[in-house]
Amino acid sequence: MNLPTYSDTPATVAAPHAHGGASTAVVMRWVMAALTPATLYGFWLFGWPAINLWAITLLSALAGEAFCLRLSGRNALPVLADGSILLTGWLLALSLPPWTPWWIGVFGGLFASVFGKGVFGGLGQNPFNPAMVARVALLISFPVQMTQWVMPLPLTAANAPGFLQGLSITLGGLPLLDAMTSASLLGFVKTEAARGVDLLHALTGQGAPADSWTGYRLGSLGESSSLLLAAGGLLLLRLKIISWHIPLAMLAGIALPAAICHGVDPARYLSVASHLLSGGAILGAFFIATDYVTSPNTPTGQLLFGLGCGLLTFAIRSWGGYPEGVAFAVLLMNTLTPVIDRLVKPRVYGRTRGGAPLEPERPE
Amino acid sequence: MITAVLSLTLLGVALGLMLGVADRFFAVAVNPVIAQVEGLMPGSQCGQCGFPGCSAAAAAIVGGAAPVTACGPGGKTLAAALAAKLGVSLDLNAVVDSGPKQARVAEEICIGCCRCGSACTSDAILGASKQIHSVLTEVCNGCGNCVERCPTEALKLQPVPVTLTHWVWPKPVAA
Amino acid sequence: MGLMERLFARTGKIAWGVHPDERKRPVADLPLARLPLPRRLFLPLQQHIGSAARPVVQVGQQVAKGQLLAAAHGEFSAPLHAPTSGRVAAIEDITAPHPSGLPCPAIVLEADGEDRWGERLPTCDDPFKLSPGEIARRVADAGIVGLGGASFPSAVKLALSQRSAVATLIINGGECEPYLSCDDRLMRDFADEVVDGVRIVLYAVGASRALVGIEDNKPEALAAMREAAKPFASIEIHAVPARYPMGSEKQLIQTLTGKEVPAKGRPADVGVLVHNVGTARAVHRALRHGEPLIERIVTVNGGALERRGNLLVPIGALVEDLLAFCKLAFAPQRSLARLVMGGPMMGSLLPHARVPVVKGTSGVLALTADELPAITPGPCIRCGYCSKVCPMGLLPLEIAARVHAGELTAAETCGLTDCMGCGCCAYVCTAHIPLTQYFQHAKGELAAQQRIKLRQQHGKRLATARAERLAREAKEKAAIAAARKAARNAAKAAAAAQAVASEEASA
């Protein structure tokens, strides 16, 4: 089914002759504003290579979108100005390893805008979240580069790479020193579990869970500052840009099984806090799963969707082959969005839940 | 290996025999769909589609010789109904439906020859010999048979005029 | 209106609707002014839902103020009276106050300036002595229709209440549209008349109580009405939250009584009848003073006007006359961009200013470009804001997608028929899609297709009848021909036999 797209205002204009002022560009700008604190903190933590990667990813996404628009014969500039592809590129950049080579960013940005959005018809037509489509494509195609995480090296530290060195790291793909690279918390947990080492022993040396709160630990830009991201998410809630249903349901979907499993077998399963603060849980709950185009329209449907995302994330993290499950979980639930939309409909005024007209209540 | 080949061959032969028997004993003599399609049509036997009557057109549409948009007076509604019934995909936005038409007599030209009245498929033309004729607009279905018969070209098909009660909001323009 | 809404229903916060900038003050606080009598009045024969009225006057006839110009035609109609004295200049087509700009028949009245009353309608000192049927008849004779905008003949509504019992009468003082304040002004200045009208209608429908719903952004009107209704226990004045579309009867009924009107049903199905405050006042004027409906309060507002306010306007005055009285602004940034009859949320675009004010005109807005939405529409991003605000609980994005694809039957299944066209969805649409226009278009198309289908069925019946008739005539003709041939043969045989017999006789 085609969703409407327009270019002209019709000659005979119908009511309403007033508008509330909402616009796609305004919404996108607020979401990007909500991402800014966490992104800046991430830039500080990981230095110039992270900034370069972020810029390259966004530019590639823009270029891919412009290409698709040109192919479909539409004027590129006004569409690019609404900021939706910039947001997609930004979310993708936040989920990449910060010191990853430039071509990962380029490939990801182009993939997101062309195969995540462009081929389906542009804004509003894509069934899958474009940032997650690109992330999964990268993860499957370049597993090595996508799992090379570095410890934070703040911009102000003595041995942090300068601007030029940062450029050479991003563009040259300088082989990273072994001492710097390591697995993320979730990756570490998965490999240790495969080796049969229980968590209580494995995590003592790491000091990882405590660092999760400050974010001074390795991970993607979007992972390192969970609290700042949560603050941004609360801002969006306050502005009524997103509703509380999907974030709450997704976090509950991760937290509840985590609580149960950690309670039953703490040696095998991470605690609730670790789950919520690691990986893309907060980013996914507030920014990725809440994507308008690919999530259901009704509050109850959104609860189901969020819950599904959370449960799948937990399942993939604990029992699946990959250490991080947010991207896969969101894509899987995106496939169910049309089904949820068809099954969950709000009750119409004057009708029962089933759709039949209400019975008259005439007075005697 | 031999058993595999043999068993599959036997299975194929058995199923083929069953299909043949079914085709012989359960064959449908007359296609009921044609009658149903004819029921949907306006039934004025006007011949605008090029077929001699509605039943011939129905048979052609069901058989695939004519498209579901063949019936002019049926318009978009009929095309949509036929497409739904026959499972044919139809892009409704591409169907040109200029809307219902009515015939109108130009009274200055009418000579009262009465040829149009006998051609009218729904008895919509009033008039006696050597008197000016008139079209009953509520009854005229726009088939156009009268227009061809009139020797002085006094009859013309015109779109039904839009009144305040029948006016429809235009669809918003889309890119 | 699902699980979530029910869980949080106790908070009393209304989830549906929008709250646009009211823009009612300072216009609402200005005193009521009277429009100077225009030279010509243009009175469409159909200013109500139902059949058009039929003229009972001739061109050139002198008429007095309040004289009957056109009589109601049938049960579902309303008569038309002269708003001033003068001469019937013409009975012809004029541009209807409708976005299409199509013509409608109207009586053109040339005012003689004397404003002389003729014979008024029958009055009575105590309407409560009349039978409800007599009250309904007098309301019908006064040409009263719903002044809230729907223009439903009020007498027909009163007659409906004779058929099904009405327990609660609801008087609509909501006026939820921005810019408009005609009902506000009416309640402030004529509260006693409104309350008297309510009492008469209450008696006529046999309800036990009347609930007057007034939005809480009108404290002066609430105070005035409370004061006027104090002596009457059966009339309760209620403040309702100011939210568009609170003035919609379905939403007002739900807010005041908690009941929902069943889909495809009427308020009578839940024992309720709704009338506008203006209609109640018109009933008072008709029954106590014998005045038919010939004038009403119209709010003239909008950024393109120098002087704005509520005017007492005779029915039939041109919008042009109203604009001339209120003076259009001179500055270029305040130039007139759009003329709207009604409020901005559901009002009709006017093709030009030479259209008349009719019985259902609550306001005329002269809007500048700043006051209008300017951004061009974009693709739907499925944000769902529209479904959050829909007062009927529909999913406008789904219906619009189906209408856009031409799948009108699927749109109907999705809930198109329940849409009341309030415009909340288009008001909040992030992509500025004209959703309401999609729905109006779809409803019109479906109605047109239904008409075409009925026409075709009728045509088919006629064609079959014609074919049968031709076959029957042919058979009869053949029978007559056969009979004639048989008679001819018999005659021939008889003649032959005769010839043989005479031959034998002569031989």
Helices and strands, with pairings:
The complex is a heterotrimer of chains A (364), B (175) and C (507).
Chain A: H1 24-46, H2 48-71, H3 76-80, H4 84-94, H5 102-114, H6 130-141, H7 143-146, E1 149-150, H8 163-172, E2 181-182, H9 185-195, H10 199-202, H11 208-214, H12 221-224, H13 226-238, H14 245-264, H15 272-277, H16 281-288, H17 299-319, H18 326-343
Antiparallel strand pairs in A: 1-2
Helix pairs in contact in A: 1-2, 1-4, 1-13, 2-4, 2-5, 2-8, 4-5, 4-6, 5-6, 6-18, 13-16, 14-16, 14-17, 17-18
Chain B: H1 2-25, H2 32-40, H3 54-63, H4 75-86, E1 101-105, H5 115-119, E2 125-126, E3 134-135, H6 145-149, E4 155-159
Antiparallel strand pairs in B: 1-4, 2-3
Helix pairs in contact in B: 2-3
Chain C: H1 3-7, E1 33-34, E2 40-44, E3 54-55, E4 62-63, E5 68-71, E6 80-81, E7 86-95, E8 103-111, H2 132-141, H3 154-163, E9 168-173, H4 182-189, H5 191-205, E10 209-215, H6 219-229, E11 235-240, H7 249-257, E12 272-276, H8 277-289, E13 295-301, E14 309-314, H9 319-326, E15 338-341, E16 348-349, E17 363-367, H10 385-389, H11 396-404, H12 408-413, H13 424-428, H14 435-506
Parallel strand pairs in C: 1-14, 9-10, 9-12, 10-11, 13-17
Antiparallel strand pairs in C: 2-8, 3-5, 4-7, 5-6, 7-8, 13-14, 15-16, 15-17
